[in-house]
Amino acid sequence: MLETLIILYSLYTLMKLYISVMQIGYINEEKRKAPVLMSKEDYVSAANYAVANGKLGLLTTLVDYLMFIWWVLFGFSWLSSVIDIQDTVSDAVFFLLGFVTLNFIVTLPFDLYQKFKIDEDFGFNKMTAKMFISDIIKSTLLFIILGGVAFALLAWIISRFDSWWIWGFVTVFTIVLLANVLMPTFMALFNKFTPIQEGKLKDEISKLLEQVGLKNDGIFIMDASKRDGRLNAFFGGLGRSKRVVLFDTLVEKLNNKELIAVLGHELGHFTHGDIWKNIGLTGLLLFIAFYLFGHLPDTLFLNMGVSSNAGIKIAMLMLLLPLLNFIFTPFISAVSRRNEYAADAFGSQIGGKENLIAALMKLVTENKAFPKSHPLVIFFYYTHPPVLERLKELGFDVSKTSAQEVTIEEPSLPNDGIFAFMDKNDH
Length: 427
Known about the structure:
By secondary structure, the protein is mainly alpha-helical. It has helices at residues 2-30, 40-82, 88-121, 129-160, 164-187, 200-211, 248-253, 256-271, 274-293, 298-303, 310-351, 353-366, 375-381, 387-393, and strands at 193-195, 215-222, 233-236, 241-247. It has 14 helices and four strands.
């Protein structure tokens, strides 16, 4: 069984490496062609940023693979011998905290290089070393407290129930729901939220929320610029009460009409029930994961030189979840891409096509999002349609380079939607 898992993880790693290599080659080739949506300088800069991230991704994928091999062949047995506590729950908690800590230490240099080399070189990073250390301390303490409680609860469930995977799924899924609700609270530990000033923008956002049947739970501007120069916004809360959070970078770069169009897109997801659809897909993936990992044979753990205790079982779930997620990613991404078109249609109806187009183009330029990607990357990773396709559906002539030159055509769009305005690959 251990050999089978190693083979599967090796194939998964090779596939990720192949996709990354194809993406790097594709972008290097495309950046030599005529630019789209950007000036030549911005186009090449966005391509170079994507390539730099891609090369770092290749290295981190290799390191992740080596860490996987080390854990299943040597690491778990070593850590089990170091942490030997009689109490089952305490043993599992300290084992898992050790597991997470070692992985964090290994990946920390890559995070530092991403933040203080790549993002710094391309003008995104605004964070100082002092702020970075402060964030690590805060996030570590938060993880020890909340993660420790979650680990203890899961370990107790595993030690008490034969069908622990069912109750484990219910527990983790509940934690996911709570995390979505409490996200603005956690972010307040790292950022300052300032209520938006009275004025036209606040009135327009409040009116927009009322228009789709939502209750205004506050409109805030977050000081994201002290850490990063990219543009973003999000809604907090799962019910009808919504907290609107705008990055100060977004407010600075987009005018009121463009902001309303962006928020209209987000509200399209609520109107179409996409948030619940997304949560449902997450729940399905978690259920499958807990079922599979809850039925791993004891021989697997014997082959790794460990007993099948709670800590080992949870660590294996954490270690193998990316592999399972990769298998389901194309399906989830395809559903999400289809839904995004409808959210764009809703946003264009609320805020105007020309304003949504202008906002998309500004986000592409400001976030240095290279507008083209290899088909394999789109197939596996893009939860949003490529920005060129979104603009085409909105009636924009993509051979133009500014929203002011747009020729509007009537788009034909699907009827669903989902979470964020821009794909993580567009940032």
